[in-house]
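> example.struct
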């Protein structure tokens, strides 16, 4: 029987290249917030994949971007700290790139410094022709000796085992660090915050900039009169401006109800328990510069 392998894998890339989508595909559960906006992931989220002969622990990092606030600086610091302390790096780029852009160059330099095993994942291959893809592969292979280059579409399940097999191949023999029933080391509270934030970003589209964060203030389990288990969750969506608050709440509170309803359905599916969710919106204009809040996003 093959020897059991285990290891830590960091997923890194520029903002909005599909890291969270890929993480959720590989883990098979909704672990990271997915939204079609930059800087969706703020913390290093771990997802766990248990296979017959291996356990793979993933860290999804904040996208690399130009920092403008303390929060941005913390996010980038988190990304680079995690690649220096992993067994395999998954470097995700977009197939639509014509050359190695500034952000990807910075990441490449950091990978070169670590001298760690790295797998290049080229996402969104459905958007380009084969000739362009081959040229992009050649460009990156000239920069670093990747263990493998895997072109994928992160929304297509057929690529899941291809990527996992390649990662497993590059891991060393080791123990299972987590119980095999687990798929993330995040608490239910953190997962609830992620889901609410994802729904807010998706439903508001471009109406509200990225300046929101979610805090679950109460999470209590109880039994209903019919002895059915239920979670009471109270959460606040913080935004940077008064004008944003109005947009998030919507006319007659309709948008906030929509966010809450959508988040509750997702939570019930993920947690396997009934959810009673109450959400509020508050303005905290300086939160991206507030140390006590920003410190929550540091790599633990």
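> example.seq
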């Amino acid at each position: 029987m093959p020897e059991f392998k285990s290891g830590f894998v960091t997923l890194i890339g520029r903002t909005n290249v599909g890291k969270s989508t890929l993480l959720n595909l590989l883990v098979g559960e909704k672990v990271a917030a997915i939204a079609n906006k930059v800087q969706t992931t703020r913390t290093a989220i771990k997802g766990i994949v248990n296979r017959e002969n291996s356990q793979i622990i993933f860290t999804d990092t904040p996208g690399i971007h130009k920092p403008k606030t303390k929060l941005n600086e913390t996010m980038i610091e988190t990304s680079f700290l995690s690649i220096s302390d992993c067994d395999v790096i998954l470097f995700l780029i977009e197939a639509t790139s014509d050359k190695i852009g500034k952000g990807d160059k910075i990441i490449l330099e950091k990978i070169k410094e670590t001298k760690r095993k790295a797998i290049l994942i080229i996402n969104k291959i459905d958007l380009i022709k084969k000739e362009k893809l081959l040229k992009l592969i050649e460009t990156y292979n000239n920069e670093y000796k990747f263990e493998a280059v895997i072109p994928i579409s992160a929304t297509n399940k057929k690529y899941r085992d291809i990527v996992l097999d390649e990662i497993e191949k590059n891991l060393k023999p080791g123990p299972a660090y987590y119980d095999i029933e687990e798929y993330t080391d995040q608490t239910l509270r953190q997962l609830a915050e992620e889901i609410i934030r994802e729904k807010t970003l998706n439903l508001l589209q471009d109406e509200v900039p990225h300046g929101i964060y979610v805090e679950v203030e109460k999470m209590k389990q109880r039994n209903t009169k019919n002895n059915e288990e239920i979670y009471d969750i109270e959460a606040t969506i913080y935004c940077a401006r008064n004008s944003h608050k109005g947009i998030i709440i919507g006319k007659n509170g309709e948008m906030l109800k929509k966010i809450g309803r959508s988040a509750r359905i997702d939570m019930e599916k993920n947690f396997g328990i009934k959810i009673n969710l109450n959400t509020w919106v508050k303005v905290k204009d300086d939160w991206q510069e507030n140390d006590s809040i920003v410190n929550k996003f540091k790599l633990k």
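> remarks
Confidence is low (pLDDT under 50) at residues 34-43, 63-69, 71-76.
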